[in-house]
Amino acid sequence: MKSFKYNISLDKLELTYQASQQVRDALATIEESKVINEITVVRVEEPKHYQYEFLLYGKDYDIARGEYNRAIGVLYFGSLNKNRQHIYINYNNAALYDTYLLASRFYVEEALNLQFYRVSKIDIALDLNRNVITRFYRLYRNETYSLVILNKRYKDLDESVKEVLHISTGTRKRPFKNRSFYIENKDKSLALRCYNKSEELTDSEKEYIPNVSGKLPMYRLEVSLANHKNVAKSLSQLGVFDADEVYSKLQNEEFLFSLFLITLDRLIRVGKGRKGYNLLECLLQ
Predict the structure, then answer these.
(1) CB 162 within 8 A of CB 154
(2) In 5-130, which ranges are E strands?
(3) What pTM does this model have?
(4) pLDDT in tens, 58-105
(5) Which of 20, 47, 123, 131 has a Cα-to-Cα distance from 85 of 20 to 30 A?
(6) Could you tell me which of 278, 230, 227, 250 has the C-alpha nearest to residue 16?
């Protein structure tokens, strides 16, 4: 049997900041671009959801290219939604896999005179070199197990399960060749996705994502916390209540793995007899 390999990482991150009116006004007056303490702030001409949106770039240097800018993420504020009245930075996907760029959050906060407030959105991806999709469906159809999905218990195999969405792609000859499944709550603020990541990597240019398999395929389990309330709930179950502690541990693998497992348990748990198990534990047996 091939050796077990995995990689845990952030795949989405939105951070919430507070700032004085003076700082907001200074950002709002940027017409095209401005360098603020070595952070290049470029205004988005036609913002989609906020009154003000800016691309953020940080300086870097290498021998071949010399000094150049690297994309960090998007800063935005000015929403009509009364619940979205802070300043937000959504980090680029590539930046989340780059130790230097993700660590730049500390400098960005200081350079732009922002004050970190909380993590408002976060996706955590677990990539594995084991086919967890096949193992999931084997477990899913096993009548000796019960499943608790979004706090609803399912024991009967003939009972309709509305919380799990099954998606398949393939050829005309094998239409169910590539399977995946999704679990989402009603407002889609808490979700689990499981799919063959190698399908995406083959069709995209995401070379920055570590391939734990060495060779394809690679499988992904990804949990999503799409609002600060769900982030706070998972953190409280983990026993973490200090926002600054979370902020400092966003690159800590042990912390991310613990948060992943807690969130996974909120979405789906496995029961056998009187005992309960984490889904990942069952898939890796």
Answers:
(1) no
(2) 6-18, 33-36, 39-43, 52-62, 66-77, 87-91, 115-128
(3) 0.92
(4) 987 666 666 668 899 999 999 989 989 999 999 999 999 999 889 999
(5) 123
(6) 227
